[in-house]
Amino acid sequence: MSRFLSVFTISVALLASGAQAETQTETQAQAETQTVGWRDLAHAREVANDPYHQLNQDQSQLMLDFMAISAHFAKDQRDNYLPVLNTLSPLSSVDFSQGSYPYAEQLNTYLAQASEVNAKLVVAIEAEQDPAKLAQVIQATNKSLDAMAALSPRLEQFKHGSDKYLDKKERIKQPKYAAAFTVGSTLVDAVPAYQAQQQALLAKAKQLKAQLAHNL
User: Fold this and answer.
1) Taking the CB of residue 205, how many other CB atoms lie within 10 A of it?
2) Mapping DSSP to helix (H, G, I), strand (E, B) and coil, where does residue 197 land?
3) DSSP3 helix / strand / coil % (the chain, rounded to 5)
C-alpha cells in the first residue's frame, strides 16, 4: 500500500511539474508574440510616418496613371482612326519599395513610344480630308488632355515633397537616396512635355477641320 502511494505521489508530482512547464512555455510564447506584435506595430508606425515611403507610393501611382491615360489614348486612335499606331504597353503594377531606379529605363522607353504616337498622328491629320475623322481625333485628344490635367497638381505636390525630403545633407550622401525619386522627377518634366505635344496635335486638327469646312 505504501509502495502504491509512493508511485502515485511521484506520478502526480511529475504531472504537476509537466503542467507547470507547459504553462511557463505558453506564457513565454505569448510574451514573445506580444513583443513581436509591438515591434511590428512600431515598425508600421515608423513606415507610415516616413515621407520616403509615401513619396514612393505617390510616384509609383503617378507613373501608373500616366501610362494608363496615354495607352488608352493610343488604343482609341489605333482602333478608330490610325491602325498603324504603336501599341503602348503600360505597367499594371510596380514595386517601389527599393526606390524607383529600376523603373527609370522602362519609363524612358515608354515616353519615347508615347511621343511617337503623337508624332504619327500629326502626320496623319495633316493629310486628312475627312472632317468627321478629324472631329474624332479632336474629341479623343480633349479627353486625354483633361485626364492629364488631373495629374498636374499631384506632380507639383510630389515635386515639393521630394525636394523638401532630399534637402538634407545626410540624405544626399547616402546611395539609397541618390536616385530614389528618379521616376517621379522624370514625370515632373515629361508630363507637361506630353501635354504640349497633344495641345499642338489638337490645334492642328482644329485648324485643318476648319479649313475643310470652309472649302465645302
Assistant:
1) 26
2) helix
3) 85, 0, 15
Please state, in angstroms and rounded to a whole number, the distance separating the CA atoms of residues 199 and 216.
Answer: 26
Stretch 113-139: mean pLDDT = 96
The answer to whether 55 and 184 are in contact (CB under 8 A) is yes
User: Quick one: cell of 48?
Assistant: 507610415
pTM for this prediction: 0.77
97 within 8 A of 56, measured Cβ to Cβ: yes
Instruction: Report whether 172 contacts 89 (CB < 8 A).
Output: no
For the segment 139-172, what is each residue's pLDDT rounded down to a tens digit?
999 999 999 999 999 999 999 998 888 887 667 6
CA–CA distances in Å: residue 15 to residues 6, 20, 120: 14, 8, 85
Mean pLDDT across 192-207: 98
CB neighbour class for 41 (10 Å; exposed up to 12, middle 13-18, buried from 19): exposed
